[in-house]
Write a structure and sequence with these properties.
The protein is 28% helix and 23% strand. The protein is elongated and about 85 Å long. Helix 5 links the parallel strand 11 and strand 12. It is built from eight helices and 15 strands. GO terms for molecular function: hydrolase activity, acting on carbon-nitrogen (but not peptide) bonds. One of its GO terms (biological process) is carbohydrate metabolic process. Keywords: Membrane, Signal, Transmembrane, Transmembrane helix.
Length: 349
Amino acid sequence: MKKNIYIIALVLVVFMIGILFFQNNVTSTYKAVNTTEPKDGKAKNEEKPNVTFELMGEGDIVITLGDEYIEQGYIATDSKGNSVNIEVNLPDFNKAGKHKVEYIYKDNDNTKVLATRNIIIEPNINLDTNGIAICMYHYIYDDDNPPEKLNSNYISLNTFKKELDYLIENEYYFPTWNEVKDYIDGKQILPDNSIVITFDDGRKQTLEYMSQLTDEYKIPMTSFLITKNDGQRKVEKFSSRYLNFQSHSHDMHRPGGSIGHGGIFTALSVEEGVADLKKSIEICGSSDAFAYPFGDYSDSSRQAIEQSGFLCAFTTEYGKVYPGNDPFVLPRIRMSNGQSLSSFIKAIN
């Protein structure tokens, strides 16, 4: 009897020593845990092998937008000291801000260990880019029924459709106004073939064409609307996923100033300008972008634009938009009646 007791005691001692030995010799920075359930719904008691994971380098990594990210390295081993494969998930390096690089360990049961490294991408207004073409159109007309007073502000429907076909066939990117602003501020890299389509004034016939074409091509377009001219009804009727309205002022598209083409905006005080702009913002339902009436601007009108909360504003000066530009006096590329497809391609590229 005593002999049996001694044997049982000896077994227990050996068992306890084994447990202590296991606990003292298995260490882990990140522990792999089985995240899959067996098909019978019963939890598995067996733990997967521990994985020790060590990141090289110290603290957050800071780079400038547009610079190459260089991985600092890592060491990943199992409990036996063998190297294990790690999946590295990289963030979008085309946007400034705080990001994370994720390091993931997976085994055959989809068990994983996750570690992260902070990457801080600082803005860069000195990015070397091709620039963004902000296209300035005014009116669309039917080739079979041209207006009596046809001028350079018009573009034929067939010509415009050929241009849209070219953009689709060549997979152009159509950024939002927020993306354009981040691009200007050096906070985002956009594809080299980025383009924005805008029309000034918001004439009813042109809006009807724009509505049809945006639905057909799924290309976003902006109408810079003079909101005094039946603006509320136009916004309610034509606003869509692809057709958005931005301000061309409420009632400042008229003479009265002495700068440039003589638009009244430059003759108004900052307070008067803001009052008009607030009306147009309310009707358009957005303050993302503004087009100066006649392209005229002054220090006071620029100040009114900024105080009204616009992201950006456009003149009629010719050129592309680049990082570091003043967001409240941006150029556009004028599109004119009779332009060929080749001249359009040259202008936007």
